[in-house]
Task: structure prediction
Amino acid sequence: MNNISFSISDSTQTETQQINSTRVALVCLAASGFIAAGHFQNYDAWWKGNRNGFRFVSGKKDDGEKYRNADKFGHNYYSFLVSDVIGNAFVWSGIEKRNAFFYGGTIACLFQSYVEVEDGTHPELGFSFGDAVANITGSYFPLLQNEYPLFKNFTFKYSIIDAGNVEKGLNRTLIDDYESQYFWLSAKIPKMIFGSENFFARFFNVAVGYSVKGIHPPIHREAEWYVALDYDFEAIPIEGSFARSFFHVLNYFHFPSPMIRVMPKFISYGLRW
Result:
């Protein structure tokens, strides 16, 4: 009753795909709820108060310099996260993968674009072209991962070490506190070098991380670059839809591991987020 059947035909094969309309409705409802929650979070954190005429953020100091581009990494990661969650939810609903991740990417991109346009009407924010580009790259990265095998070797991850700026009243929410956030690009470099049969290469990646310090007070903002061992939880050989989904969610985050900070000053760590 809830299943809609359709055929995808080409010169070589015909594939029948079953779409569960109840699941599709649930995904759309959940996505709508997420978008509403995102709107109210942004309204409470940023959009209360006076509006002005639409304003573009212009110039390096007005855009990337404030957070040393950590906000661009943030826009990229959050867009990627929303897109991937919605895309996989549509796959769960029975929608063909290419379409599912296109829909997920488009929904994420449209919502993030709405946020950026809304920012443009507030005097302390403004519309940022850099943020807009980061929204697009993050939103459609899951589609690239699905379409091109090369991109499956890379994924974006996230970790937090609370700098205490929210408690001090320096930031409104933890999401706005870029001193507490670390954005990672995890790559299956060991697997690309040693092959998937190598035990170490199968379960471990190499990640490059970015954060920023010195925002409060903004006397000497410093970009921080890290290189760390990273875990590929999806390589764990436990089957079942719940287990596979659980490991996929774990792969959104970077967990404590040996790492080094390479800039601005070399520091080696044992286990660190």
User: Anything to note?
Assistant: The chain is about 40% helix and 20% strand. Confidence is low (pLDDT under 50) at residues 4-16. Residues 114 and 258 are 39 Å apart (CA to CA). Strands lie at 3-9, 14-20, 154-160, 181-187, 204-213, 222-231, 257-263, 267-272.
